[in-house]
């Protein structure tokens, strides 16, 4: 085993079927982490596709459409059938960047989709999912509206994001669900238990975002990394003594990773990948350098001893602070 292997094995994501065992999350190229270089972002997306990554995850509210337009440009000249585009919708934002809840009414579902198709320059979205549960709209109505778009050919598969076991069951009863997108990492393991058990019972895959906890456990983060408009400055895990405690855990993981010839990020990604053949890590690389490092986790099969050492270096109960601020945590059906 070496950190330079880029062999992408495969996983299974519900109705989507077989897919490479790593996906690329694009949010950081447009929003929430400070400025990103457009040319480097496009080069990174193309490098990911060239490396065999097929699942590309975006959201219509990432930079208020900027991310979808960026993806459109990056995929110029790429065979559309060689990639799967996953789009999250429903988050309401203002021109000042503010957040105003979610809208998952059937009419809104179809309207958001129409705009996404135009921005992406495609005639279909491979996986379409509400970013958050809209508490004012029964999930059956939202999924039913997406199902109509599947029937019409504008959507291929239906996904969910950050919802709990009961919501998953209700949604799946309306139309088969391909996958649940949810935060899953060494330091965020709330999916384990009822949610993951329910997904597996129903044959639903998991796309795991935040596998490096927004860079916290990447091995590259320091207090000096936060830029203007970086939402991590408001995240409990990145504040004060919480950050000091968490970075101490990262230092412990660094030694364990080095013993296996891995970087911290590679160990963390490989750990998520080890959780099952139905779990696909989404890496949030914004540059080709970080993408190359992430790809170094591909094909790595951690031994039981390595897994034990990684988990002992970063015990989930020792992590300081919640994954989101309190107001955002209150919006997560998956945390209820």
Structure described in brief:
The protein is of the alpha/beta class and 336 residues long. It is 36% helix and 17% strand. It has an eight-stranded parallel β-barrel with strand order 3-4-5-8-9-10-11-12, surrounded by five helices.
Task: Write a structural description.
The chain is of the alpha/beta class and 336 residues long. The protein has one domain: TIM Barrel. It has helices spanning 38-50, 66-74, 106-120, 139-152, 165-174, 194-202, 240-259, 264-273, 288-295, 304-313, 326-329; strands at residues 10-13, 17-20, 23-25, 55-59, 84-89, 91-93, 99-102, 125-130, 155-161, 179-183, 205-209, 279-283. It has an 8-stranded parallel beta barrel, surrounded by 5 helices. A two-stranded antiparallel sheet has the order 1-2. Helix 3 (106-120) packs across helix 4 (139-152) and helix 7 (240-259) packs antiparallel against helix 10. It is globular, with a radius of gyration of 19 Å.
Return the CATH class: Alpha Beta
What name is given to the CATH topology? Answer: TIM Barrel
CATH superfamily: NADP-dependent oxidoreductase domain
Mean pLDDT over all positions: 94
Question: What is the C-alpha radius of gyration, as a whole number of Å?
Answer: 19 Å
What overall form do the CA principal axes indicate? globular
Uncertain stretches: 1-5
Biggest sheet overview: 8 strands, parallel, barrel
